[in-house]
Amino acid sequence: MHTPHARTIRRATAFPLVVAAALTAAALPSASAASTEATGPGTDYAVDDPFTSDRTSWFRQDRFGMFIHFGAYSNLEGEYTRPDGTVCRNAEWIQRECNIPKEEYEKQAATFNPADFDAEAVVNAAKDAGMRYIVVTSKHHDGYAMWPTKVNSWNLRDHSAFDKNRDILAELKQAADEAGIKLGFYYSIWDWHDPDFPDRATFPAYEERMYAQLKELVDNYDPELLWFDGEWDTDRPHNPWTARDGERLEEYLRDLNPELIVNNRVGKRRVTDGDYGTPEQEIPDEPVDGQLWESCMTLNNSWGYARHDQNWKSSASLVRNLLSTSSRSGNYLLNVGPDARGRVPAPSVERLGEMGDWLRTAGQGEAVYGVAYGGLVEQPEWGTVSRKGDKLYAAVTQWPEEGGSLHVTARTGFDVTGARVLGSDQEVAVTEAGDGYDLTPTGAATNEAATVIELTVDPGPTAAPGEGSGLKQEVFDNPTLSGAPKLTRTDPTVNHSWKYTGSPAADIPADSFSVRWTGSIEPRRTETYTLSTLSDDNVRVWIDGEPVIDNWSPHESHIDEAQVNLTAGTRHSIKIEYVEQTGEAHMKLLWSSPGQEQQIVPRQQLHPN
Known about the structure:
- There is one protein chain.
- The chain has 609 residues and is of the alpha+beta class.
- 17% of the residues lie in helices and 29% in strands.
- The chain folds into 3 domains: 61-367, Glycosidases (TIM Barrel), CATH 3.20.20.80; 374-458, Golgi alpha-mannosidase II (Immunoglobulin-like); 464-607, Toxin - Anthrax Protective Antigen, domain 1, CATH 3.90.182.
- It contains 9 helices and 31 strands.
- Strand 3 (79-81) and strand 4 form a beta hairpin.
């Protein structure tokens, strides 16, 4: 137990690429010139606070989406017979992992004919599952575009046996719009097919074509989201993608559509890249620090279609995965892989339908849509707990024996004013017990996947929003916080991503500057808060004159945290010192508590004094 004056310091931890005559080199957007005129000193790439912004509201509310891996690799359906008669198995990586010669891969792609692809049926399967958005592969690592791009002829229209008058992405867009489902596109940065990609000397030529394709996707299909991949350092072929490339690309996309949501693989999969993190085939144990997140997972063991892979997950385990993600403020992006003819496998459709049945039954979807981390209580071993307003949704996967209880451990003080089992008229007794409450239902579980107990809670007093205007900000044109500040002003929030080329002001260089913020921070609840800084290079923070965060050694993008006791309505003094040495520059101040979801500390709760 911390006292108001006890502070804890803690550090976190070869086919020719044919450019259509109609698209001249002059028409291609230049990657090197993609930055706007404002780029350079004085530029701040922080768009908003994704935890609270209107732009990301749908993403935070919808929680459940469909991933679709579909491309030229689907034509092989997971198996390649080598010249010696042996069979190699893979899915979307089959060209690389099975060492298929480029000419042979191109030859098989020319026979690709997903004539049975039915966008309406795919969208209906997503809607029946309770999914609120779809992300489809527009271009995977093999470089094959699934739309009629004008940039090259390595695409479904120009290099397949598919109907040249059809456009799968346009069909999906129309069906999704009609169904009220949002549509996003996966796009691989890593490209095995473009000869200019692997060599840094020729990479700019590839980059311009990539920019042109992304502009086609944004302009022609108006996606809500772009899901990048292939940003990591690797070979076969060499991947030259850098964090600087990611900075430039992200800025270009924000200029195309400021409302776009972009994942962190647009850069180098870091907490400072894009809008949200992308754990793959895993679910974090708790909310991700400093960033929204979405876990992408498969229904079996493969992303693309592989007829040999029949290791399908049960619908009960899939429902539990969905509950695990939403109860930790995350999204669940669940994959389907259409076959060579474009048909979604029946086992996928069956399991998705069963998930939808669970979500629709007795209003159990309330435990998923619009919920966040159930921070008032610890996550229990018998299931998960999510929160929405004055409701806690305890999704029980290990139902107690008759007369048995379920214990919830409180992380802060709150009262339970009501309890019921969704879809059942049984009673639930709630009794204070030790460090929390015991929930004792009178009947049996309602289903195999998870039985939901809805608790109505009174979380205790929360003060009205403050009337603050931000913190006093002093900016120095040196890395030592010395001399007179070059600039003094009120900074509404500490939420900055100056990255490589930006800085706090036009006359401050992008490297070798420092910033001091002073004033007070005023919480709305009396609780123990997790105060977090996301910084690159140096940071230290004092609360009420005492040091709480000290990471004064130069570092790359890093989360540092401290547990601090704050009192509602009290203005606790705060001082933050930050130094940018060289390279990237980031500085964000976030907070969370049992009763306060993670967010950038808002302007209203900061005072310049």
